[in-house]
Amino acid sequence: MTIQPYLFFDGRCEEAIDFYRRTIDAKVTHLTRFKDMPNACSPGQQHDEKVMHVSLQIGGTTVLASDGECHGNPNFDGFGLSLQAPNEAKPSGCSAH
User: Taking the domains of the chain in order of start, what are their residue ranges?
Assistant: First the structure.
């Protein structure tokens, strides 16, 4: 069994994607914006550029995410992601004593 987390960022998904790319080398394997839908309900709307669906590859795990309904009130309570690194990373610029 595989479990894939699906995270909703309420209009801030692009920011989350950039963060995961920078910090844990996430790779975008698929991205669809609301404007990309063949029968978009309201073309030209403010949220057209927002992320409808993104698939991120993080190591051997796929994480799915979206801007959701874009109400503009992101609330990051109630979820967590646990990452297991293959080895302990040494902070850059520090030397072992």
Answer: 14-39+46-66
